[in-house]
Structures are given as structure tokens and as C-alpha cells.
Specification:
Elements (H helix, E strand, L loop, with lengths): L1 H23 L5 E5 L2 H17 L4 E5 L6 H4 L3 H9 L4 E4 L12 H17 L3 E5 L18 H19 L3 E2 L1 H11 L1 H5 L11 H16 L15 H14 L2
Parallel strand pairs: 1-2, 1-3, 3-4, 4-5
Helix pairs in contact: 1-6, 2-9, 5-6, 6-7, 7-10, 9-10
Amino acid sequence: MTQRIFTISLLALLATFSNSLLAEKTVPQRILFIGNSYTGGTKAGIEFFLKQADRNIQLKFIHPGGRRLSQHATDKQTLTTIAEGNWDLVVLQEQSQIPSLPNVRDEYLQAGVQLSQAIRKADSDCLLFQTWGRRDGDKWNKQLNPDFATMQKRLSEGYAALSERTETPVAPVGQAWAIVHDDSPVLFRKLYAGDGSHPSALGAYLTGAVFYAVITGNDPREVTSLPRGVNQEEAAILCAAAQKATK
């Protein structure tokens, strides 16, 4: 029942967020992404898709490796960038394991609340970047996250909890990866770099397609150009997964 409530809440928040953008008939012109190496690793895919929507869009990325939201919440540079950047939208991405781990859940939620409050104080909208489970599960937390599917479920629940706490919509990137996992197992493995954690060019492309769908309200399958490292067949499958995850 709890998971169903989270799902309904997320859908309602996402619909409200997307509808507000569509009502303005514009894509946010200034977007700040705050995260770590997962944000850095998907930067090219995000830039590719959002530039398809508007070539004049301005994107900034803060992504020190391994950085937690709790660290961003007390980092002077991060907080100053939020406060003084005149951002239309700020995207938050937590460290890749934390939302799935109950022993650090309170710290994670508190940091998310602090950052979302700072974002709203700066008169900006906030969006959560739901990340993906590791390809073969989390080797450091095998009992909790023995495989991708289990880890993804726990991550999704973690982001749903923060979404509910902050009344912030979620970009369901991890859900799109889960769709590829279920429907295209061979392609799924190609979403990862060699460490089975960070994204490959295909993983970055899929992530960009999800943000394109969430932020613009448009279907990423309508984007016909391709970045280097992605072929037409792969693009069709990944864009379909992104569209499915965001509807």
C-alpha cells in the first residue's frame, strides 16, 4: 500500500511539474545540476537532449566524485551557486547507494529538505534525479542489494520518500534503466561503464532522454539526431524506455 501511495504521489507531482512548464510554453533557460560522478557521467547525454529543445539553454553542473547531498547542504560554494545563480530549475542527485540504505535514510532526507528549502528560497524549482541500481547489485551491501532489480526498487523507494517529504517531482532515470533491464537485457549491460556502476555513453543517452521528457514534456523519440556512440536501433529502444518511464 505504501509503495502504491508513493507511486500515485510521484505521478501527481510529475504531472503538475510538467504541466506548469507546458503552460508557460517554454523550457527552463537556466538549469543547475547538483550531484557527483553520476551527474558528471551523464552530463553529455543531458546536454545533448536539452540542447535539442533549446540551443540557448544554459546548463551548469556541480559534480565532485562521491559527493553526498549532506555535503552539498553544508558546502558554501554549492549554496552560493543556488542562491545567486537565478536558476529556473535545480536538479538534485544523491550518492548512488545512500537512498537504498536505511541506516543513513534520516541524514539523506534531512539534507534533501535543507537543499530544497534553499532552492525555493532562491525562487527556483526543484527536481530529483533518481539514479539507477548497479549492474550486479551493491557488493558493499549485498544483503540489502544483491542484484540490480532489488537495488533499483530500494533506490526508487528512497527517492519517493524524499519526493513526498519535499513535495518535489522525480526524474525517473532509474526506472527507465529498469525497463531496459527487463525488455532488452543485452542492451542493459551496455548502459554501464566497465565498473558496472557508472554510465557508458548509452547510459548517458538514456538519462538525457528521461530529462528531456520530464523537463520539456516532449517525446524523446521525436529527436532524430544521434550523438557519437549511439546507433539508431539503440536510440529507438532507449528513447521508448524513457518515454514509458515518464508516462
